[in-house]
Amino acid sequence: MELWYTEKQTENMGLSLKVRNVLHRETTPYQELAVLDTLQYGRMLVLDGMVQTTEKDEYVYHEMITHVALYTHPNPRRAAVIGGGDGGAVREILKHPSIEKVVLAEIDAGVIEAARSYLPNISSALDDPRVEIMVGDGIAHIKAWRNAYDIVIIDSTEPVGAAVGLFSQDFYRSIDEALTEDGILVAQTESPYVNASLIEQSFRYIQGVFPISRLYLTCVPTYPTGLWSFSLGSKKHDPLQVDFGARQMVPTVYYNSDVHRAAFALPNFVRRLIGDLEEAAR
Amino acid sequence: MELWYTEKQTENMGLSLKVRNVLHRETTPYQELAVLDTLQYGRMLVLDGMVQTTEKDEYVYHEMITHVALYTHPNPRRAAVIGGGDGGAVREILKHPSIEKVVLAEIDAGVIEAARSYLPNISSALDDPRVEIMVGDGIAHIKAWRNAYDIVIIDSTEPVGAAVGLFSQDFYRSIDEALTEDGILVAQTESPYVNASLIEQSFRYIQGVFPISRLYLTCVPTYPTGLWSFSLGSKKHDPLQVDFGARQMVPTVYYNSDVHRAAFALPNFVRRLIGDLEEAAR
Hints:
In chain A, about 30% of the residues lie in helices and about 30% in strands. By secondary structure, the first copy, chain A, is an alpha/beta fold. In chain A, strand 3 and strand 4 (about 40-45) form a beta hairpin. At the A-B interface, strand 1, strand 2, helix 8 and helix 9 of A face strand 1, strand 2, helix 8 and helix 9 of B.
């Protein structure tokens, strides 16, 4: 028997993967959760029918959502991850020796449990003594803190259901307050091909809150269209002005200092999307 | 009725697209050819069951396979495209005012005819008076010329069937001889995720023939894993040392001078693939 899973990434497009086995399936209070064992990408976490992460390509997304900000900040000590219950972003953050504390605020305990049970390479760092796991509303958690984090990472699902508020300007303002005076926010903001208006809006919101705002891109094989965007807001440090010479490079599969700089080179159609027209005309 | 087309990109992975209509289907002497009208990507050329190009994302591949070399060369006048019967690469080359002649060497007249009939935005430039269309064996064509081209682009299908010879070191040597003394070769060399050994081999071959060799990447939504590689061999001009200030930028949707430079920033796992280990360790 050939078992195939197809994520309908849009109404008109799907990613199909041959499945060895369905390892886990449950309906949590927040979403439908499944762990599939695929032949192409290994084990895969699927939430509400959308691929979140796979064993074989997870490093691209998790390295790129974290290290860009962690190298932009000269001495990151405290970080928060909103969402990201699989633990991949936490694992990457903990590679930096200056990190003293990482708070993971994940609304769905089911995601954390499934990752612990089925995705040990991704979730392993959740047991690190520097990690505090807060199962609950990330928005409420952030609102309760002032001057607490050097880095906040919004590692969310698509802006549906519980994740809608994670793309609001009000939330970005709360993060601004929860960050230290030279803190940095990074949010995953979907694909420029199929979520153009979301990027336009999120980036404009972040521009309205942070003195330095930058959009950057990477290529994630299992995400719709591959091309994936991250929006960065920073109070003081510019990701385009990082002195890598002063820093030890942590072990990575994808990220390096050249990839860091290159991620901010935007194709013309993406520049236009964020109103960077003059640049695009050069 | 919902009609879906699925390209099995590997044995274990597929791209599925909803199809409005099958516009054309034939078996040419070289391959099975189809033009589908998809809802996500518009009209799409499929050869032997593999997506070659689509109306909606074709600019990424066609701009990246051409402009990197065309801007690296200070005064490109004569170019050859091997394969590329859809005309997209030819269209991009002709944007450069210095170009006097483009030879298209496509083995399958059916591809050219289908592109002319169904993909006018991609094939339009094939009627430009600077274009010479040679229907036949690109390898034989290249072998017959010395010192003839400033730029040679290998815009091939996957290395199966008629395209196998286009990935051989013998062919790269012939191109070296067909190029002028400061000529440049660019070849599409597939995905680092699913064609790692092909990239390793093609790049090593090109390294063995050209004094300057560089691998660069882009993200093509409709190609397997999205991440796509191009191998460049150059006799004199280094694509990392382009003086863009001296050049007029041609109109593009994707390519610009920042994207040019960024394309050469390789993730660590790709650096390792081409033996660039020391760099990766930095």
